[in-house]
Amino acid sequence: MTAKARRTGPRRGLPGRRARERSGQSGSHGRRDERGLSQSIQWAVLAPAIMLTLLGAVDAGVWLHARSIVQQAAMTAAETQALADEGPGRAEEVVRSMTGELADVTTSVDVGPTQVTVTVRARVPLALDLGLARVGASSTRARERG
Questions:
Q1: Are 128 and 62 in contact (CB under 8 A)?
Q2: Cβ-defined contacts of 69-72 (< 8 Å, 24+)
Q3: Nearest-angstrom CA–CA distance, 33 and 26
Q4: 30 is in which domain, residue-wise?
Q5: Can you give the pLDDT of all 146 residues of the chain as single tens digits?
Q6: How many domains does the chain have?
Q7: Does residue 136 contact residue 70 with C-beta atoms inside 8 Å?
Q8: pTM of the shown model
Q9: What letters, b where the CB count within 10 A reaches 16 and e where it falls short, cover 8-39?
Q10: 106 lies in a domain?
């Protein structure tokens, strides 16, 4: 065996692993450790995506709540109008009292000889308004005969 084949450690003149670690170098190219930089780039990309997802979930909840309010207002207004022998003002008053936090609320009341139809439309105040902020509901109720 030659002397060259028996040598197992690092060659002389080149720093060993411990010497590279002490000097802050890693790898065979002498660069600094960039793992922290790649993690910060990952968070810079992921943080807005996570925030948009959370904001979208909150907006979906607000929209569903507003749709429920509009449906309930239409049903209550139709029932109130069917029981009252008055003009459509009573149904509009009920809708106005139930849809306080919604914007651009419009109420349409159709009083026929046998039934009452109330249609309610409103705009929901959303943080991410992508054109889906409109909700509407319609309810029909038979008129009471007296």
A1: no
A2: 69/98, 69/99, 69/102, 70/99, 70/102, 70/120, 70/121, 70/122, 70/135, 70/136, 70/137, 71/137, 71/139, 72/98
A3: 6
A4: 16-142
A5: 555 556 565 555 555 666 556 655 555 555 555 666 788 888 888 999 999 999 999 999 999 999 999 999 999 999 998 888 777 788 889 999 999 889 999 999 998 889 999 999 999 989 887 888 899 999 999 987 76
A6: 1
A7: yes
A8: 0.67
A9: eeeeeeeeeeeeeeeeeeeeeeeeeeeeeeee
A10: yes
Residue 7 lies in a domain: no
The DSSP code sequence of 60-105 is HHHHHHHHHHHHHHHHHHHHHHHH--S-THHHHHHHHHH-TT-EEE
Tokens of 44: 């810079």
Which residue bears the tokens 């069917």? Answer: 82
Report which residue type is found at 102.
L
3-state SS assignment for residue 48: helix
CATH number of the domain that 76 lies in?
3.30.1300
Two tokens at 140?
């029909």
